[in-house]
């Protein structure tokens, strides 16, 4: 399943942040999004995941194919690790949770209420949800926040396995994940806002 982005313009809080973005993501491919804080990476991923509409342009191939992990881990604190994953498996119609538990080394935490996990453990649980969605396109926003070196490697292995099975991944991250991936620097697509001088001139 391919994802194609054509001439996309996106906004946050009513202000255009990125414009003129076009790219595609093919099965087996990972694409890393880079750019300075506040440039619009999260806004771009939210738009691609269908959480907000674009100002203009088209996202093709994103219906029911995307599993999205944003800044929040999306876990239910009173449910155990296994119950959280079982909940998501039922939502997405997945077979079981054992592969997700194993991929993110959650076996020992299986029966622990998710609210009692450390930040890194919560992040591992949040990321393991990707495996029970069965969806081919992973859209991940700063997935390695709170992860230690071993857990980052675990995550990178999970992405590699996903790509090996014909999946794809679009990842906003500031760190090197060691993946064989292309990088899209979004800075050049910053939306052109009126220059301050223009604003002052119009105001005075
Ligand atoms: N809820 C919001 N309402 C209004 N503006 C917002 C909101 N969230 C973010 N913004 C603004 O939208 C712009 C793009 O933010 P966004 O979170 O997409 O950037 P980012 O590239 O992901 O940044 P970072 O690397 O810091 O996570 C920023 O100027 C930000 O201040």
Automatic annotation (TrEMBL):
Chain ranges of the ABC transporter domain: 3-204
Entry GO MF terms: ATP binding
A UniProt-annotated Pfam family: ABC_tran
Sorted UniProt keywords: ATP-binding, Cytochrome c-type biogenesis, Membrane, Nucleotide-binding, Translocase, Transport
Keyword Ion transport attached: no
SUPFAM superfamilies, alphabetized: P-loop containing nucleoside triphosphate hydrolases
UniProt-listed NCBIfam families: ccmA
Name of the protein in its database record: Heme ABC exporter ATP-binding protein CcmA
């Amino acid at each position: 399943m391919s994802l194609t982005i054509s001439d996309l313009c996106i906004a946050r809080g009513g202000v255009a942040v990125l414009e003129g973005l076009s790219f595609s993501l093919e099965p087996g491919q990972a694409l890393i999004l880079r750019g300075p804080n506040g440039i619009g990476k999260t806004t771009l991923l939210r738009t691609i995941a269908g959480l907000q509409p674009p100002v203009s342009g088209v996202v093709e191939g994103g219906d029911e194919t995307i599993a999205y992990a944003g800044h929040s881990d999306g876990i239910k604190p009173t449910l155990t690790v296994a119950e959280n994953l079982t909940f998501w498996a039922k939502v997405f119609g997945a077979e079981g949770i054992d592969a997700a538990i194993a991929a993110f080394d959650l076996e020992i935490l299986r029966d622990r209420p998710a609210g009692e996990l450390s930040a890194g453990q919560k992040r591992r649980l949040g990321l393991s949800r990707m495996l029970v969605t069965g969806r081919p396109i992973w859209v991940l926003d700063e997935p390695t926040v709170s992860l230690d070196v071993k857990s980052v490697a675990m995550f990178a292995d999970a992405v590699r396995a996903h790509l090996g099975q014909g999946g794809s991944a679009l990842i906003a991250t500031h760190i090197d994940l060691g993946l064989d991936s292309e990088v899209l620097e979004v800075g050049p697509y910053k939306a052109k806002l009126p220059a301050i001088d223009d604003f002052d001139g119009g105001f005075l």
